[in-house]
Amino acid sequence: AMEKSYVSMLLLLVAISCALAKDVGKKDTKETTAKPKLPQTLSRGWGDQLIWTQTYEEALFRAKNSNKPLMIIHHLEDCPHSQALKKAFAEHKDIQKLAEKFILLNLVYETTDKNLAPDGQYVPRILFIDPSLTVRADITGRYSNRLYAYEPADIQLLHANMQKALKLLKTEL
Predict the structure, then answer these.
(1) Within a domain: residue 11?
(2) I want to staple 147 with a disulfide (CB 3.0 to 4.6 A). Which of 37, 86, 104, 140 is the partner?
């Protein structure tokens, strides 16, 4: 099974590098300059080697279909608290490893889904959604006034909460 996953990763990498090579050749044509530039990576620095979804709708669809929990990180690029948490998250080897088991989405804007702001629209906040598409309001951080906020000092708690989100899955399905 291990070998299989390596092969598929390899094929994926080949496909990506081919796609990149094609783009390089097209640089001078007008069509590429007209298109708005997508961010270099959907990770926005939260884990460049992880697979991130682009939209909330895509994330929900993938969580439901893959039977994986979804982790949504709300943050802002110019918020020092968000930046500090991002750095801690990206540098934490165990969290990065565990994150591979989730459908991942990080958002720099609010969605219209009120369920993603159970106690307000603050950043950074992290919510977990199970494959039945239920927001797990029971998986909280340590602050009673901002239930889904985490600081770099809470990184172990976040790791434990990620494990909790994965465990729920096994017991409930």
Answers:
(1) no
(2) 140
Q: What are the residue ranges of helices labelled H in the chain?
A: 2-25, 30-34, 56-66, 80-91, 93-99, 155-172
Q: CB pairs under 8 A, 24+ apart, for 139-142?
A: 139/164, 139/165
Q: In which domain, by residue range, is 134 found?
A: 56-166
- C-alpha–C-alpha distance, residues 110 and 117, integer Å: 9
For the domain that residue 84 is a member of, what is the CATH number? 3.40.30.10
Spatial CA neighbour of 107 closest among 47, 165, 56: 56
- Output the pLDDT for position 169: 74
pTM as predicted = 0.75
Pairing of strands 125-129, 103-107: unpaired
Evaluate whether residue 50 is within a structural domain. Answer: no
Q: Render pLDDT for 35-91 as a digit per residue (tens, 0 to 9).
A: 555 555 899 999 999 999 999 999 999 999 999 999 999 999 999 999 999 999 999
C-alpha–C-alpha distance, residues 163 and 173, integer Å: 16
- Give just the sign of the alpha carbon dihedral 72, 163, 139, 145: negative
More confident position, 7 or 92: 92
Residue 46 lies in a domain: no
